[in-house]
């Protein structure tokens, strides 16, 4: 009898975890359900942006990034959540500021801006020049490139994948030419 009780308890825990995990993915939300302070922060930071969509999440950092797929293309599908809340605490807005560039900004429920990531068609000429001074100068750059702006960072960072032969790295290059990240990607077999 004790074994059956433990089995049922385990089954209940697994079922609850599965339901909670489903609630951690970002959900499309109507702009009217966004806290006013979040909408005001976005509109102050990015005035005159007409086309955008809002998403809410219950987790403090999601590994399964929501967006147009440029993260999952680099890292593969991820489903881990660092911390989950009962109510949506973070809001993400996807918008277009410049033609051909898709951006996403993340705010908490109090309107605090965390970061903006922008998918770029090409790196700015200054960054290409700085890249050419690194050991990755002859490596092929991925189609997907992004500009990351975040609080607490000394400046803008550009992130992209470089490949040479069967080796691939995700690198971050700041606007001063410093490599701030070099992450080797495992080759797909």
Distance between the first and last residues' Cα? 47 Å
- Report the C-alpha radius of gyration, rounded: 20 Å
- The strand line-up of the biggest sheet is 1-2-3-4-5-6-7-8-9
Number of domains: 2
Structural class computed from helices and strand pairing: alpha+beta
Estimate the helix proportion, in percent: 10-25%
| Weakly predicted, low-confidence segments | 5-25, 62-68
The description of the largest β-sheet is: 9 strands, antiparallel
Shape: globular
Beta strand %: 25-35%
H-E order:
HEHEHEEEHEEEE
Mean pLDDT level: 76
Q: How many DSSP E strands?
A: 9
Number of DSSP helices? 4
Describe the overall structure.
The model is unreliable at 5-25 and 62-68 (pLDDT under 50). The longest helix has 21 residues, at 2-22. It contains four helices and nine strands. Strands 1-2-3-4-5-6-7-8-9 form a nine-stranded antiparallel sheet. The protein has 189 residues and is α+β, with helices and mostly antiparallel strands. It has two domains: 1-118, no CATH class; 122-189, Nuclear Transport Factor 2, Chain: A (Roll), CATH 3.10.450.360. Helices cover 23% and strands 34% of the residues. It has helices at residues 2-22, 36-45, 70-75, 125-131; strands at residues 27-29, 52-57, 90-95, 102-108, 113-120, 140-150, 157-164, 167-174, 179-185.
Which properties best describe this structure?
globular; Nuclear Transport Factor 2, Chain: A; alpha+beta; 34% strand; nine-stranded antiparallel sheet
SSE layout:
Layout: H1 2-22, E1 27-29, H2 36-45, E2 52-57, H3 70-75, E3 90-95, E4 102-108, E5 113-120, H4 125-131, E6 140-150, E7 157-164, E8 167-174, E9 179-185
